[in-house]
From TrEMBL:
InterPro entries: Endo/exonu/phosph_ase_sf, Endo/exonuclease/phosphatase. This is Endonuclease/exonuclease/phosphatase domain-containing protein. It comes from the Eukaryota. It holds the Pfam family Exo_endo_phos_2. SUPFAM superfamilies: DNase I-like. GO terms for molecular function: catalytic activity.
Amino acid sequence: MAKELGPIIEELIEKGGLIVLAGDFNARTGTVGVLMSDEHECRKSQDGTLNEAGRYLLDFCAHHGLKILNGLTNGDWEGKVTSINARGSAVVDYIIVNDHEMIDRMEIQKRIESDHLPIQVWLNLSYFPLVRGLKMKIKRNRWNWKKDKGFDVAFDQCLQAKLVALNGCLDSVDTLVNSVNNIFNTTADEMGLTPNQTTTNYLSWFDKDCREEKQETRKALRKFRKSRSDEDRRDYVNKKTRLKKLYQQKKKEREEQMWLRINECTTGDHCLYIPEMDPFRNV
């Protein structure tokens, strides 16, 4: 890791860059923090083991001025375990930064798809002087436009009257965007336009059995995270194994059903395959 990441980190630090390392480091650091000013930071951790890989990671962080946020940040003051399997539980997945103020919060999520629990991080956007490339989800309405004669002119007049009223009443770009969106939606509603509504019914393998089994598995995970007992850990691992087998079974049944439906198209007309395949697409 030092050979590969070291030069990159040093170059970023020289340029004043911000660094976030995240993922599975296969290292257990216990409650030991990174050495800062001849003293180790005190972190909390549900995994008290410090192994050789953990010492190496701590030395690497100290050398480059990096900080481990697990057990030292809002949302994870306890240093919750990040990996749970049949052999035990441990903290091996980390969020490591060169400036902790860029992170508002981090949480170890209650997901059951993997032995490793995902870590969710909230960035402190006010810390960044300029944020580029961030994608935001924007709700867009598509309206069924009327083709009546003169409707375009009437809609434009109604819209302009509302936009003129905005002049001098805005204090930020966010307010402008929200106000204009609201005006468009209000005008469309007043003019009798209706939004397009399309629904697609897909045949999914994830059914009631999967939902119930997943709920039970997540309950077992929550119970273990609260009790930290070996018995609850084994119960969670067994339930997760059973859930994985159920998923595989349901996917296999869905695939068999798909091919059965296709084989029933015996007319030789390839167009009949399209409606038969539609329920199985994008699932």
